[in-house]
Amino acid sequence: MDRRALLLSGLAVAAAPELARAAHLPPLPGDMVLGAPKAPVQFVVYASASCPHCAHWWTTVLPSVRKAFIDTGKVRLVFREFLTPPNEFAAAGFILARRVPGKYFEVLTTIFEKQQAIYDSEHLFEGLEAIGKQYGLTEKQFSDALADPVALKGVNDRFARAMNEQNIEHTPTFFVNGAEYLGDFEFAGLSKAFAAAAAKKG
């Protein structure tokens, strides 16, 4: 971490609860969505911008899921933000993604694609700043975004709700039509889960 971590000094880091299941998944403030609102299958993804496992899944599996299911109206993806160490990097990534109008998922995808290179550089906030510039933000706009108290409160609130109300402990965590998915995270396993959920609903 460098001096830019001070911009995120308002972040709360809470202890994870013991339970891991979420019994009910109603729409929540701050949800980011892809896909048709009336899709028969709702696929809820809890992930962290700082999680290497999330980055791997997002960049290798999600593109196929999106092409086969989300873009065809069969599945609606509901993305919910979670913080994992380094929490400041995850929070900054989410704040950055929300700051670029209409390109949340594009920015988040870029963060996941460059995550390892940024870690290797050991210049975490400079790496995010470079992504911000790629999407048209100036250095001041990037710094202002990370220092925005409303944005900081939002990411804190979403993180606290995921842990304390939905009982999420780790990332990635998936739910398919409200039931926690504990199977294979690869395309084949998810395809079977989506088909079963759609058949059950039908």
Automatic annotation (TrEMBL):
* Family annotation (InterPro entries): Thioredoxin-like_fold, Thioredoxin-like_sf
Q: Which UniProt keywords apply?
A: Disulfide bond, Isomerase, Oxidoreductase, Redox-active center, Signal
- What organism does this protein naturally occur in? Caulobacter vibrioides OR37
Q: Which family does it belong to?
A: Belongs to the thioredoxin family. DsbA subfamily.
Instruction: Cite the PANTHER family for this sequence.
Output: DISULFIDE BOND FORMATION PROTEIN D, GLUTATHIONE S-TRANSFERASE KAPPA
Alphabetically, the GO molecular function entries are: isomerase activity; oxidoreductase activity
Task: Report the superkingdom from the record.
Answer: Bacteria
Q: What is this protein identified as?
A: Protein-disulfide isomerase
